[in-house]
Protein: Type III restriction-modification system methylation subunit
Organism: Tetragenococcus muriaticus PMC-11-5
Amino acid sequence: MGSGTTQAVAHKMNRQYIGIEQMDYVNTVSIPRLQKVIEGEQSGISKDIEWQGGGSFIYAELAKENQEIVESIITCNTKEELSQQIDKLLNEGVLNYEVDFEKFTNTKKEFSELELEDQKEVLIRILDNNQLYVNYSDMEDSAYNFTEDEIAFNHSFYGGE
């Protein structure tokens, strides 16, 4: 979505649109931009089409699984902080089946000698990248504690039951 210009124009022209964003600024840039469009802001093509405001949009976010652990690893500033994330990773993360965990746990000395950024990279690689977010097929798994409303929304969005 970036700054939301394309979505703003589509909205003002009464077009259906889907905006996808992978960066963290969606809540500080993209969504406020669309809220201003709905309120009737007059930038861009507004005057040409006599935009008066109105309409609505739906904002949804993917439910994080391993992504939460990745984010907590990335934000660590010291090796001590990072070492606290290892137990969380091993206990809560969906791990990469290609990683030899016995070998990993037997090389703690070598791991501790790595630079902080290299340690972060190793830990992130241990996680299964295919499980950064919760799969739709797992929505009703009680381990995730999704509400009935969240499950119903996903079924309606994906055309399920």
User: Anything to note?
Assistant: The chain is about 50% helix and 0% strand.
